[in-house]
């Protein structure tokens, strides 16, 4: 970049009060300066609050249309039923409430520039009308059949990826390519490095003058915190933050402890975040069922500890304990059978506890639990999962749709699990 271009960029920054020196910002300004003298359509990309409208004003002010009218319109703020009338006008009686003829923005702005912000929110039918304006400079008022002419330069902006909207059928492909003649990317605040500190200082001075107080300053730790914060709302969010602190804080030196009170608790750093997508929905369902199994196992172990303590205290007979906690021993023959039959089989190993001999009783219980653990491997995740699936199928009379709902998984996952575990009708 030569000296002349750099000087012109600095001049543009001063004129439009643009603060910052990041290469991405300077490149966006340079592209805007180059395309301004032409009548080419421009599509400005950037997150909400990044300052896209400022670039549309730069383009208009440096063009031969600078003496014409400039209108900024937020397409997402106009109801779908009235946006055609707002942009292209209407005839008297065209719809209920149309008591007179009305000129639209494209008619009254002829010879000037229209900035269409959030173009991705424009309805499909309105997109067809806009395409005709861009290609032929023609439009028709709502309720009329007369073709009118206009000479308007269109600058559009979006905070969404229009290519994805085209693929989803929400945005016309021909309009996308017609608007995207010259793309300009406005960087997000988090992409501009130390510009955030320059902007913070600028806003602090502005609010100090507005509220007639001393400007706030950041400590070194607070500066680091500001640099790490992602600012999803970009410049608009930073400006609101500085205003809040300027009004509410008595101490003009802002520490990290003070600053953190005003920062949202989420997205506070530039660390990568886990983003879920539709393709991961099934894997999360399988993970959920494993979590459920683990929680059930934890509950069973807690109940087992209580049972051991009860045995050690010698306050209950084995039959009473089995009657109360028999479900803990499902699948273990020498316990499950006794829970149903009061008589003890001679083949079973009795749990004989000695009154008053705590140490010996403890050893007996530990040996018995070890014996259970050896014979019963039902604590494996696969067997627990299989048992849960069988129970769900039995509960719902083998109706897999409702069984899947009870398990919190998709039918597709349930079918796969049934095939994996070779489960016949429960």
Set out the fold topology.
Blueprint: H1 3-16, H2 23-35, E1 42-45, H3 52-61, E2 70-74, H4 83-88, H5 105-108, E3 113-117, H6 124-136, E4 138-140, E5 147-149, E6 153-158, H7 162-167, H8 173-179, E7 182-185, H9 195-210, E8 217-218, H10 220-228, H11 234-248, E9 253-254, H12 256-260, H13 281-313, H14 318-325, H15 333-340, H16 358-375, H17 381-395, H18 400-407, H19 411-420
Parallel strand pairs: 1-6, 1-7, 2-3, 3-6, 8-9
Antiparallel strand pairs: 4-5
Helix pairs in contact: 2-3, 6-8, 9-11, 13-16, 13-17, 17-18, 18-19
Biggest sheet architecture: 5 strands, parallel
Helix coverage percent of residues? 40-55%
What Rg is obtained from the alpha carbons, in whole angstroms?
A: 36 Å
The stretches of 5 or more residues where confidence is low (pLDDT under 50) are 267-285, 331-351, 375-379
Order of helices and strands: HHEHEHHEHEEEHHEHEHHEHHHHHHHH
Inertia-based shape: flat
Distance separating the two termini? 75 Å
The fraction of residues in strands falls at: 5-15%
Biggest sheet: strand arrangement: 2-3-6-1-7
Number of helices: 19
Give the helix/strand class.
alpha/beta
Average pLDDT, rounded to a whole number, is: 81
What's the β-strand tally?
9
